Amino acid sequence: xxxxxxxxxxxxxxxxxxxxPQDKKYIKLNTNxxxxxxxxxxxxxxxxxxxxLMLYPDPxxxxxxxxxxxxxxxxxxxxxxxxxxxxxxxxxxxxxxxxEKTAVFPDITYGFYEVFADYNGVPYKKIPLGDDFKINIxxxxxANATVFIxxxxxxxxxxxxLDEVEEIVKNNPDNVVVIDEAYVDFGGESxxxxxxxxxNLLVTQTxxxxxxxxxxxxxxxxxxxxxxxxxxTVRFSTNPxxxxxxxxxxxxxxxxxxxxxxKNCKKIIEARLFAENELKKLGFEMTNSSANFIFxxxxxxxxxxxxxxxxxxxxxxxxxxxxxxxxFNRITVGTKDEMTVLIGxxxxxIKEEF
Length: 354
Ligand code: PMP
Description:
This protein is 36% helix and 15% strand. It is of the alpha/beta class and 354 residues long. The protein has two domains: 15-36 and 259-353, Aspartate Aminotransferase, domain 1 (Alpha-Beta Complex), CATH 3.90.1150.10; 41-256, 3-Layer(aba) Sandwich (Aspartate Aminotransferase, domain 2), CATH 3.40.640.10. The strands form three sheets. A seven-stranded mixed β-sheet has the order 2-8-7-6-5-3-4, with helices on both faces. Helix 5 (112-119) links the parallel strand 3 and strand 4 (124-127). Helix 4 (85-96) crosses helix 5 (112-119), helix 4 (85-96) crosses helix 7 and helix 9 runs parallel beside helix 11. The longest helix is centred in the last third of the chain and has 24 residues, at 258-281. Bound molecules: 4'-deoxy-4'-aminopyridoxal-5'-phosphate. Residues 84-86, 110, 150, 154, 180, 182, 206, 208, 214, 219 line the site of 4'-deoxy-4'-aminopyridoxal-5'-phosphate.
């Protein structure tokens, strides 16, 4: 840190992204990307854009917003494209939180929420998950703060039902409730239909998981028009051209091939079920995941050891250090073939240990 750092950032502890190793080819099961590349149809329009890159992109993201809105059954002014859903989460902390309207979220959830809170100078409270790692919805009623909930939650993968989400939204008439649906396409229920009923609900989604485009950085906010207008105030005050022209073209291509997305989600859910069964046979226990990852611990081997040994054997998974979760690893669900290799390597590890 230099002596010039502003006072407000002196104590900021930045987010640590998952490993993105560039040196060696791993089976990469650590940051919940899709194992499937974008389809040929999805990328077909992108190269035309290169020759138009001397121009700024459309700050209104018209074509992409229209297509996405149509797909999810809302209006164009009820969505906002963002540079990865991380961007809209940060915008939500800026737009809807301050020293009086603080933030609440579970103690075990997406680690970026507290970093965004700190970055925006927003005090926050972390509410412990239950013994079963579940969110107790009544903990969030009348929160007197902006509520941030990942549904399904990460890294547990446990989903709330749509009724439970509605209870949280309904019981916070004076607070914005942000439902982060990064993993909703793998078995969760989306809260998008509720935006027409509640003016305090913001849903966030991403193209980084089910839509195979983590590298392009594309996400969406979905809410009633007035909340989207607030978020656009933040966007136009920081980065009006937040979606670059290549990402815009890719995003439209991806939406033109929704079949491919749905088929891939089905394959991932099947691979998850396969891996969960095999992991159980090897002595792992896991939470009930509705996401494209499995949160698992072995009854006899520490989470850290499994993480390290898998890495030596060419498989990357995610290990977290929190007290309650240090025995677990979060394992992204890849293809069935990748899951088969994973199970084989875990069998080797178990044999080496005993
Ligand atoms: N929310 C959750 C719960 C996540 O796990 C992630 C990805 N790490 C994100 C949001 C952000 O996704 P992106 O910025 O790639 O859209």
